[in-house]
Amino acid sequence: MSTETILVLGGSFAGIGAAHYTLRHTIPQLPKKQGTTYIVTLVNPSKDFYWRIAGPRAAVSKDLIPRAKYLYPIEPAFAYAKGKFNFVQGSATHIDTAGQTVSVTTASGQQQSIPYVALIIATGVTTPSSLFTNSADLESTYDEFQKSLLTAKHVVVGGGGPVGVETAGEIAEALNGKPSFLSSKPKNPRCRVTLICADKKMLPILREAISLTAEKYLSRLGVEVMYNTKIVSAQPTGDGNTVVQLGDGKTIEADLYVDATGVRPNSSFLPKELLDTRNRVASNPHTLRVDAAGPRVYVVGDVGSYTRGGVMDLADAIPVAMTNLKTDLTAYITGKAPGPDRHYTANMKEQQIAPIGTGKGVGAMMGWKLPSFMVWFIKGRDYMIGMLAVPTVNGDGFKKEGKWKPQQAVGQQGLSRG
Ligand SMILES: Cc1cc2nc3c(=O)[nH]c(=O)nc-3n(C[C@H](O)[C@H](O)[C@H](O)COP(=O)(O)OP(=O)(O)OC[C@H]3O[C@@H](n4cnc5c(N)ncnc54)[C@H](O)[C@@H]3O)c2cc1C
């Protein structure tokens, strides 16, 4: 009796979704091979899944979003797959594509070498600010940040994307209060909050009119916005403040600085020949196979070169990559592929929603502008925790396999969110 491992690296939106999909739809449909069992092994540094989407509010208030709402244990979510699922708390450190093994350092410091018959890379991205990336210290990072906010007189947030906009709004509302009905600015703000955008508008994916509405809502909470301003560096001073150096040579001194200027792919454990020029895992944009890594290696989620990122996009990608995995494993077992490849098509429609404080928000879905109350209803109430956090870790969005036709654009299925 032998066991073959489908190895998933990364236990967040993409890796957890891929593992559920494989257990529910890929392994059960493989042709039976005498004496061989297929299992899924998931490797992740934390035993908990982090609902990163809520980071901007969780960082600011444990009353609004306590720990139990942003961290969810991974292993119990796979209880239905007893004997077919294995969780390893650790980090991949090296991949040997010729030998088809991955080296892992476990949380207790042990070295393991895990052989794989198929590999799914879903190691995602790290944010420059520790407020938005899961770590063993996340709760204490939030405690410390919330303590510093109590005395802050000037907070600078760098980055005009949704994370910067949402974070500036949450901080300003927590410190300056909710605006009164007709006011355009708080009368006596407790804290100055400055949002620095490198471009001429915030929220680059959205049309200008929506960005201007976001600026108006931020202003009501006491956020000042600087456009066309690059941040060159942010250096801590001896007294706990930060000096933010701007591209035009000027500096701003802040009590607190939150860096929301972008993300870095978690790909340093992979050989250079598997990466593109942005250090993303270079995949076939249609099949999501990592062709340079040899047979049966795939990428899903934000670490992949095929995507502009986001959870809706990876929800489209998972069924594609996992269907191709089923095809490739069947061919491996029987010597014959059961059908053609499934293809991924990127959804490039205007699509993003950003709450601004607990009451307002802006955004668009499938190219349609959403009114503020809809953004609040979908995301602003609780950053979608009530609607989607437990279903995501349980893989509920992938309970059904979903139909597809060869070469047809892939519609959205599985998870569905902004
Ligand atoms: C603050 C914030 C708010 C966001 N809000 C939204 C939103 O509202 N809507 C939306 O669509 N998108 C949103 N995003 C983007 C969304 O969070 C990402 O698209 C999503 O997290 C990507 O999921 P992923 O599984 O690909 O990677 P990640 O979530 O980055 O997870 C990667 C996982 O892999 C693990 N890992 C890293 N290295 C290794 C290794 N060597 N070995 C094993 N495991 C490893 C990590 O610890 C992590 O658990 C937001 C992002 C941020 C930062």
UniProtKB/TrEMBL annotation:
GO molecular function: electron-transferring-flavoprotein dehydrogenase activity; flavin adenine dinucleotide binding
GO cellular component, one term: cytoplasm
Keywords associated with the record: FAD, Flavoprotein, Oxidoreductase
InterPro entries: FAD/NAD-bd_sf, FAD/NAD-binding_dom
Span of domain FAD/NAD(P)-binding: 6-308
Family recorded in the similarity comment: Belongs to the FAD-dependent oxidoreductase family.
Name of this protein: FAD/NAD(P)-binding domain-containing protein
Source organism of the structure: Pleomassaria siparia CBS 279.74
Taxonomic path: Eukaryota, Fungi, Dikarya, Ascomycota, Pezizomycotina
